[in-house]
Amino acid sequence: MIASLLASGWVLTAQAQPPQLTEMAGYLIVPHEGVPSTYNAGFSMYVAAWPLLKSYPGSQFQSGLFGTWMFPQFDGQAPKDHYTDIEGGLGWWRDTRFATETPKFIMGGVTLNFAEWANGPGAGKGRNWKDPTGLYGVAQLSPWVVWPPDGLNLKQGTRGELFGYGYLPLPLTDPKTKTAGKDVPTGNHCWTLFLNTANFKGPVAFFTPYFWSKASAENPSLAGKFLDTRPSEPNKAVQMETQHIPAMIAKDRAGTTYARIAPTHFPGEPGKVSPLIHRITAYSKAALWNQVERWFGGGPSASGLVPEAASSVHTFKGGGYSTWQIYLPGEDRASAPEVDWASYATPVALSDSTYGIRWNRDLMSRTGLSRSLETLPEYYRLTKGAEAKGRWVVVRPDEVPAETGLREAKFPAPNRPTEPYVTPLGEDPSWKKPAAGPFKRTLGDGSEITFYWYRFADQPALQNADLTAAEREAVQKRVEKLHRSWTQNRNYLPSNSVGSLASIDPALLVKPPKGLEVGYVPIVTRQGWKSGR
Questions:
Q1: Prediction pTM value
Q2: b vs e for 117-127, b when ≥16 Cβ sit within 10 Å of the residue's Cβ?
Q3: SS3 string of 102-121?
Q4: Is 14 a residue whose pLDDT tops 50?
């Protein structure tokens, strides 16, 4: 153990036990007021995007930024043992292969009890295309944004700007009475991701209804219980879920336990409270569904702009708390001591629609401090008091005994996976109908993507969406209407009224080849480190 720590760069003081690697994990809970249950056709929100850690620590790091979980709405209690939702957002995950300090965005649709999940076009549970659990669950809709399988990149250097996103259903498909040949219905709720960023606005991709109803074909008792038919529950939890921030612990000669966490950032400036969450909005079907349904039925063109009367904004009154814990090696999580988060963080309502945290700058760390980011306290001492499991209280670096080795120790260098994402292009018939390509782009994370242009109805996800050729052609005609009318240079979601907007990686913005401007979409077939890296 000692040899491996030394090899990783650890520096130890004589006669001291070496620091032990562990983690900090938990939730930041954000209370907010509810809205009427009739606003059950999706949501949108603005959340701050920033580098949570000063340095990317490797693939063990997993944390979201602030986000939510959108479950189906039921009359009365939801069915038991029936976990299914849309729960993606900004963050870092253990299966992120091309990570940097800048977060990425995933869609995070979960079918029955995590049997499958879909994170974006060509991205899902695992990378086994012979058993594609969720890999075909999302269809590309935008002709102007290409989606890498590792997640939607934000512009490198993003430091607290607001990322606007939401999901609203669109009737792109028709309801079906059979699913995978079984007498089980599939609905036509195509839950569509809309973005509102500094350099792109509009719909990007959607979950195919079959992604949800597939489980019903295998178990007919589940029919009608997924998001392909169900409305959305408007009153959702808003939290920040952290599963692993690197930490280390050590004891001094007196047996007192100390801890250190990797330098961890939050947005903040001297004398100011930065907005972290803004304008959480729930929608009724009058927001988009009704106007688009009339449009597709031969009525007037739908603008795509969400009318304010069809929305309800959740309000903030301040408050909130943390469940962050630093774990002792071998300790049960239920008994792990919590971090005294409230000593340096006070949640506040900046307005009815904006939430932030006021920081106690006397306790904040100076390590890596910049004007736009606060660095959380790095050092803690385990105290025993009224709480049987104790509490981690903040201490200054000079209060940590030298013999612990914590101040001089270095966190191990990150390990970076090298395996590329590769689709079965040229092997699976689903991938053999590109209209143009290949094209390549180098992204801000250092990876290179290869993509082709497919006619919308011929993209692999649509060919694996339990649609007949005639049904896919009907969807093609509807999407061509969208491509002609719903441009990328105007608002769809309600605008932010505070802060500035984040940008997605400019390398993800594409222009269709001549002749393919309407009804065609870009599909990534490979993502790997750029040659020579």
A1: 0.94
A2: bbbbbbbbbeb
A3: CCEEECCEECHHHCCEEEEC
A4: no
